[in-house]
Write a structure and sequence with these properties.
Layout (H helix, E strand, L loop, with lengths): L1 H5 L9 H4 L3 H8 L3 E4 L2 E12 L26 E6 L3 E8 L6 E12 L1 H8 L11 H8 L17 E4 L9 E4 L13 E4 L30
Antiparallel strand pairs: 1-2, 1-6, 2-5, 2-8, 3-4, 4-5, 7-8
Helix pairs in contact: 4-5
The protein binds a DNA duplex (13 and 13 nucleotides) through strand 3, strand 4 and helix 5.
Length: 221
DNA sequence: AAGAGGATGGCCT
DNA sequence: GGCCATCCTCTTC
């Protein structure tokens, strides 16, 4: 279902209806699609699903606040948040209004605007330009000005274009990264073998000398 | 290759 | 006041 699942031919913007589906389906189908902003395009290789009020790891779990309000709105809008005092991350809202599900764009490959992306990122290898959610935002110059942007609207500064569908055999899923709650849920999707997929890092306890907690290697893309 | 620690600010209890 | 959906550098193996 090449056309049906992505909702558009490669290179054309994904319609709003693409996002108005269960977040797990949207997250998986975003693999291979291209996010475009201000002269840089990134082909997505890693996406995570967050399921609104049902998901203890979601920013929406404790209800609507000023910060997460966009998540409670219509699908196809960007939820951009600031974290760790210095980083931005971008999600795409999924499902109907009020559900507050979203897909976190975790990593990708820069396919256009390489020089611009490299300049924004400082000295960085091609592989690392958008390898990780905050790096991806930095390469694309995404910040809070874009919180709420409608990526399906014609003329929007931030857009998402359909790619050719990634074959099922190349889609892998596993635990999400960097969260302490519901981390075991296998709601992270990535393209098998792609070197721009971020390294798997389990949530690190803040305390010093925390023994045990060995994690098996998920993948080395 | 892998782990530790710092940077740094807003959000929520 | 604590906790982050992180990244970078440095250290050690």
């Amino acid at each position: 279902m090449t056309r049906a699942s992505t909702g558009a031919r490669p290179g054309l913007p994904l319609p709003a209806g693409f996002y108005d589906r269960p977040v797990l389906d949207v997250a998986r189908d975003l693999l291979g699609c291209v996010i475009d902003h201000d002269g840089v395009q990134v082909r997505l290789t890693e996406v995570e699903a967050y399921d609104g009020a049902n998901d203890p790891a979601s920013h929406a779990y404790r209800g609507e606040t000023a910060r997460n309000a966009v998540m409670f709105g219509p699908p196809g809008h960007a939820y951009v948040y600031f974290t760790y005092g210095m980083h931005f991350c971008v999600n795409l809202v999924c499902g109907p209004p009020g559900v507050a599900s979203a897909a976190l764009l975790r990593a990708g490959e820069v396919v256009a605007g390489f020089d611009r992306a490299a300049s924004r990122r400082g000295s960085s290898t091609a592989r690392d330009l958008a390898r990780g959610p905050a790096r991806l935002c930095q390469a694309l110059d995404i910040d809070r000005r874009l919180d709420g942007a409608d990526v399906a609207r014609r003329g929007s500064p931030l857009r998402v274009l359909a790619g050719s569908r990634v074959p099922e055999a190349l889609v892998r899923r596993g635990p999400r990264v960097g969260i302490s709650k519901a981390a075991e849920w296998p709601w992270r999707f990535w393209i098998d073998g792609d070197r721009t997929v971020s390294a798997y890092r389990p949530h690190l306890a803040r305390r010093k000398n925390q023994p045990g907690a060995r994690i098996e290697v998920g993948e080395d893309a």
